Write the structure tokens for this entry.
Amino acid sequence: MLSENLVKKILESGLKKGADFTEVFVEDSVSSSINLVDQKIDEINSSNSFGIGVRLLYGNEAYYGYSSDTNEENLLKIVNNLGQSRIDGKSMSIQPLKNQSVQDLHHVAINPETVSKSDRADLLRQLDKITRSHDQDICQVSANMAEKKRSVLIANSEGLWCEDTRSYSRVRLSAIAEKGDGPQSSSESPGVLGGYEFFKDLDLVEIAENTAKSALRMANAGYINGGILPVVLGNGFGGVIFHEACGHPLETEAVRKNASPFCGKIGMEVGQPILTAIDDGTIPNKWGSCNIDDEGTPTQKTVLIENGILKNFLSDRIGANQVGIARSGSARRESYKFAPVSRMRNTFIAPGHDTVDEMIQSIDFGLYAKKMGGGSVNPGTGEFNFAVQEGYAIRKGKISEPVRGATLIGKGFEVLPQISMIAKNLDLAAGMCGAASGWVPTTVGQPTLKIDSILVGGR
């Protein structure tokens, strides 16, 4: 990707500019996607991205630049520009570069390069056909397959040299049903850190059925009357609320800036004893997993909250140093165009011992939010507002009629103590998370759980 000799020159040049630490990140990635809309292949895309990122650290201050030009003069000029406000004179030498072996936790069984575009198109057509077969009120179906292979090299002035390859595969299916009061949509978008075997093993019937039936049920739904209510929050993508409202404030990128409601609360109670929350980058082939993070630190399992007690934060090099904790292997970036910061990987609430039936039966009137949609959050305050994609009223201990237009509104750190029951049915769902270092693949998840009291917005 880059010669060792050139990498050494870049790293040494950074130290001569007075930096305490220098880093080179090289990326070569290949992406492809196929879109099907209204029973026709609408778009086929492929792209290649190559570039080099250079980072200089002066204490906890980071200076970052990047280029797709591998010319030595150009790369050394970037270093010079990054450090031009600093005084030359340090005679430090980089540590001898030593290759760090990377344990591959995420096997690729079928190389995507061996599969034709026509096979991919046939799979999307099957998804479309099965989805439409559920009801004539399914008026639109779109399906997409996306794949990406990232090869990276990370080297730094402390002697690190490591290389890694990450292969991502994901499918997205969306259906729109129209009955009565306007169209309603539903979608499923599973993904893995793995090869084409993911698509070969997909249960197309299950994905199509879940998507179509959800859209059809919501197309027949009335509107909910809002208020402060108990809510049963469905498993899988229901974890997006914890991810957004609590996960981001648990990253050192927020904590080190005193922009988190969890600052100074390590060792303190933030939820009931039934609550344990984990971020685990080691789960084989999960969408948010990795062998190493984008600073070259091996990934790990990080327990964030254990039995209601705040235990740890997610950290990168700068955040760990500034907050005073160990690095958790959570430094991530979208591409060579971004400096790494602490980010989530596979973040989920651990299984409990309750049942969904017990939760429903404990509620006289409330909301069953079976599937969550999109929303927004203020990481500094934990305030969130999320739409319920598929919801049902709970009446006298039973799931009742479907309802549309519901939103969940609150603050993450205030909602955590309201979680009073957690089921055993943990499920994880793939998503994309945007923050200071761009968009990265993350997994959200949880079992079904009960929130005793939360503001539900309605029509």
